Amino acid sequence: MRWLIAAQCAVWVAAAQSPHNWPQFRGPEALGLGVGTAPMFWNLDPKSGPTRGLKWKTPIPGLSHSSPIIWEDRLYVATAVSSVGEAPLKVGLYGAGDSADDNAEQAWIIYCLDKRTGQVLWERTAHKGRPKAARHTKATHANTTLATDGKRIVAFFGSEGLFAFGMNGKPLWRVDLGNLDAGPLPENLSWGFASSPVLYRDTVVVQADVKSGPFLAAYAAKDGKQVWRTPRGGVSERSWSTPTVIEQGKRSCVVCNGWPFIAGYDWNDGRELWRLGSGGDVPVPTPVYASGLVFVANAHGGPSPLYAIRLNASGDITPKAPAQSSTGVAWMEPRNGAYMQTPLVHSGIVYSASDRGVLNAYDASTGQRYYQQRLSYLAAAFTASPVAAEGRLYFTSEEGDVYVVKEGAAYQYLGISRLGEVTLSTPAISQGTLFFRTRGHVVAITDQ
């Protein structure tokens, strides 16, 4: 039986890492790395000059920050459609924590598109009703990204539930996880749910750092039955981070960003393996495992650390001040972490960009900083996480301007491409094409 399970896992890993597939938020293992080439320059904004690079553009109704995912020749994306018309969205750099006036009935819908043409193949409504929790003025009621393993599609809409569909859109199961109201202190602020599900070895892992009873849990992908559930005791501030499942040797670990601690949990039973006292509150970035270390970024409320954590850590691995390392922490950068964007790690370099577009590059092994550079000298806000392909890094502003930077220890700006539309979603990469979720469309960009 063990050899069968191992064989199944090997097949799952090979499929998830196929250059054709982008199965979850930030793609395989949440690394944000595409295989092969991707376009360098395009322009979809007619006010900026002749348009070029558009492969297809498909309207998607509603408002959502759900990123596209891809399996073979199909693309999947989620949205929330208000019953009273266009939902409000306030973008840009501002500090207000107000909730949006968007509490009318919504329809949470999953769309399946042909990856090659953009044609809508099917759509399924997962749920209809008034939202059980409010959202931030910059958020949506469908912030989370879908996940797939080629056998089913999983959607996590927070208070509206955890859902699974077949690859043809057939509803498989639904789990009601109660009211998952997420918001920072004070308690009267509600910002919406944004932690995406992760599919690993026929198991769905979800993180819910919410106001009441925060938890990490695993559910059987075939029927939605709970496998284990671990309280996130001590989480006094909410987080919107997607967890990362990491397999290293015989140990599989679920790593969760959070405040006042980051923690690793045993994938088999959910018990806590280690924890690290964190700096920035209300964290969003997803943990990333690369170069033998787990990289986790915080940045809000003063501190803005970036940590490089050893996966074989155990117990409390918080460095004793003024030290910036410990048995479980290889190194940390006390400043210049990230509030919104998940770090990008490629070829031994960690790229961490702030929501104001300040990019830092570090040696992944030592933490030595190679450079610090502002991507835009305009007052641009950055929420989407960076992705990379063929030595090019892509950083997308909320206004839809994509800054292309060459991979390497020296900063080299390659140029700017324009989507001509607001976007806060992280793009996907598949077979030489970039796929962006904008305010009203899914857009495929290719070299022409």
Overall geometric form:
globular
Give me the Rg, rounded: 20 Å
Please indicate the count of domains: 1
Number of helices: 1
Assign the CATH topology.
Methylamine Dehydrogenase, Chain H
DSSP, total strands: 33
Can you give a write-up of this model?
The protein has 448 residues and is mainly beta. It has a single domain, classed as Methylamine Dehydrogenase, Chain H. Helices cover 3% and strands 38% of the residues. The protein has one helix and 33 strands. The protein has one helix spanning 2-16; strands spanning 54-59, 69-71, 74-82, 106-114, 120-129, 147-148, 152-156, 162-166, 171-175, 198-200, 203-208, 215-220, 226-231, 244-248, 251-256, 261-266, 272-277, 288-290, 293-297, 306-309, 315-316, 329-333, 344-346, 349-353, 358-363, 369-374, 387-389, 392-396, 401-406, 413-418, 428-430, 433-437, 441-445. The protein has a five-stranded mixed beta sheet with strand order 14-15-16-17-21, with no helix packed on it. Strands 1-33-32-31 form a four-stranded antiparallel beta sheet, with no helix packed on it. A hairpin with a 5-residue loop joins β16 (261-266) and β17. The protein is globular.
Describe the structure concisely.
With 448 residues, the chain is mainly beta. The chain has one helix at 2-16; strands at 54-59, 69-71, 74-82, 106-114, 120-129, 147-148, 152-156, 162-166, 171-175, 198-200, 203-208, 215-220, 226-231, 244-248, 251-256, 261-266, 272-277, 288-290, 293-297, 306-309, 315-316, 329-333, 344-346, 349-353, 358-363, 369-374, 387-389, 392-396, 401-406, 413-418, 428-430, 433-437, 441-445.
